[in-house]
TrEMBL record:
One Pfam family per UniProt: PALP
Protein name: Threonine synthase
Source organism of this protein record: Ruminococcus bicirculans
Annotated family: Belongs to the threonine synthase family.
GN (gene name): thrC
Lineage top rank: taxon: Bacteria
Domain Threonine synthase N-terminal: 3-79
Swiss-Prot/TrEMBL cofactor(s): pyridoxal 5'-phosphate
GO molecular function: threonine synthase activity
Length: 496
């Protein structure tokens, strides 16, 4: 197994190289040269195993240049009850008949990003060691709220690394901001930018692929890498929970081995749902991958029409981690669906950066329609959905997850499809207490910690210890900069 660039199929690197580098020099994303297959027997056997063992199995298919001992070191370091508040690592809750909530937020920062970012530091430092690179790794992160904190928590005080996070000043929840600005650790930096997530992401990508900055870092014994889902080391761990969930549903007798399931994912950068696509093509029986968006519905339109057009207003919503108009990981999907046609990808993504728009071929449109369904909802519909689930099933879900539930309900009503369905629940409701309480019709005048106490009463979900502890933490990072000044901030933070 090796990894190619979506913009140059001739590139051929090991998984360690792909993870260490983060993004290809040509601006493309690394993809596996083939999608490894697993059998139904494999899946059945996984049903008896722990999450860490399931992770070991999946990683050993993708990280073929890692030794068994290296993979074990990574999965055991990440997926344990020191980091997660449940033995199962990811929990499956029943919602309504045939529908399961895959709770991916039992990690230290209460969002699904922990599933990958708890292990990425292990994968990355192991990769660096394997490659014999003697440089400090500087992790640059653009975040719409959750990745930043999860990456900071994963990388804090990890030897040989330094992490710098950029978030949109007005684009994250009060709790998300608090989580990031109070971050501890001697190798961390956090900075707000005047702009939205796309500005932050574009800024980071530009700095990453700039020769000038690469040279400057190299002169100082440093190199960049990425903790965003453009890094294969972020994506591979996300495949695991879909494989694991299917194995669990079989083991629990909820489905028969071989039965298809739908997977619904509240989507932003297209990383999480793409992991579902990889799981499907490895051999997990999946009927539809259902892509749920908020009012920033560029993906809904794309999946329905084959035209990607980011020339539209950017909406700041109550599901901020999905406020994205440029979904990076779509590039990986299109590379696979176009038969690894790197010239085609260069054309489409060149057009995206020049005009903000591209249209895929009829063949690719058909492939997308076969695999995906897409829908979206606005904030009012999201809130109504939170209230409905709360009233009917006594289940409190966060604003992102509610978008997925709403889109799934619309899908089920429109198609009559009765296939059992797994809905990715991507954040703890406590990260968005204000919006969740408002949706349920409660008072929201308190500060973010007062809201947490209120939500505890309403939801009966224990308050995550990591969020409660923020109350007494000192704010360490207050800098707000123009997006044009990101490079200067980085140089100054690194002291170069
Ligand atoms: C990041 C995030 C998403 C979007 O996931 P992508 O992989 O970017 O599509 C959805 N919900 C929450 C809570 C998130 O943090």
């Amino acid at each position: 197994m090796f990894y190619k660039s979506t913009r140059n199929s001739e590139v051929k690197v090991s998984s360690a190289q792909a993870i260490a580098q983060g993004i290809s020099e040509d601006g493309g994303l690394f993809v596996p040269s083939e999608i490894p297959a697993i059998t139904l027997d494999d899946i059945k056997a996984l049903g008896e195993k722990s999450y860490a063992e399931r992770a070991f199995f999946v990683f050993s298919k993708y990280l073929t240049d890692f030794t068994e001992a290296e993979i074990r070191y990574c999965v055991e370091g990440a997926y344990n009850t020191k980091n997660f508040d449940t033995d199962n690592i990811a929990e499956l809750a029943h919602l309504f008949d045939g529908t399961y909530m895959l709770e991916l937020w039992h990690g230290p920062t209460c969002a699904f990003k922990d599933m990958a970012l708890q292990i990425l530091p292990y994968l990355l430092t192991t990769s660096i060691k394997k490659l014999g690179v003697d440089k400090k790794v500087v992790i640059l992160v653009a975040t719409s709220g959750d990745t930043g904190k999860a990456a900071l928590e994963g990388f804090k005080d990890v030897e040989g690394t330094e992490i710098l996070v950029f978030y949109p000043e007005d684009g994250v929840s009060a709790m998300q901001k608090k989580q990031m600005t109070t971050q501890e650790g001697g190798n961390v930096g956090v900075c707000a930018i005047k702009g939205n997530f796309d500005d932050a992401q574009t800024g980071v990508k530009t700095i990453f692929t700039s020769k000038e900055t690469a040279d400057k870092l190299a002169e100082n014994g440093m190199m960049f890498s990425s903790a965003n889902s453009i890094n294969w080391g972020r994506l591979a761990p996300q495949i695991i929970y879909y494989v694991s969930t299917y194995a669990q549903l079989v083991a629990d007798g909820e489905i028969e081995l071989g039965d298809k399931i739908n997977i619904v994912v509240p989507t932003g950068n297209f990383g999480n749902i793409l992991a579902g696509y990889y799981a499907k093509h490895m051999g997990i029986p999946v009927n539809k991958l259902i892509c749920a968006s908020n009012a920033n519905n560029v993906l809904t339109d794309f999946i329905k029409t084959g035209v990607y057009d980011r020339n539209r207003p950017f909406h700041t919503t109550i599901s901020p981690s999905m406020d994205i108009l440029i979904s990076s990981n779509l590039e990986r999907l299109l590379y696979h669906l176009s038969g690894s046609d790197d010239a085609q990808i260069r054309e489409w993504f060149g057009s995206l950066s020049k005009t903000g728009r591209y249209e895929v071929t009829d063949e690719v449109k058909k492939a997308i329609a076969d695999e995906f369904y897409a829908g979206c909802c606005d904030d009012e519909q999201t809130k109504a959905c939170i209230k409905e689930i709360y009233d009917e099933y006594s289940y409190t879900c966060d604003t992102h997850t509610a978008v997925a539930v709403k889109v799934y309900k619309d899908y089920a009503a429109a198609t009559g499809d009765k296939t059992k369905t797994v809905i990715a629940s991507t954040a703890s409701p406590y990260k968005f207490s204000g919006s969740v309480l408002a949706a349920i019709g409660k008072d929201t005048n308190a500060d973010e910690f007062g809201l947490v106490d209120e939500l505890a009463e309403v939801s009966k979900i224990p308050v995550p210890a990591s969020l409660a502890a923020l109350k007494d933490k000192e704010v360490r990072f207050t800098k707000v900069i123009d997006k044009a000044d990101m490079k200067d901030y980085i140089y100054s933070a690194l002291g170069i």
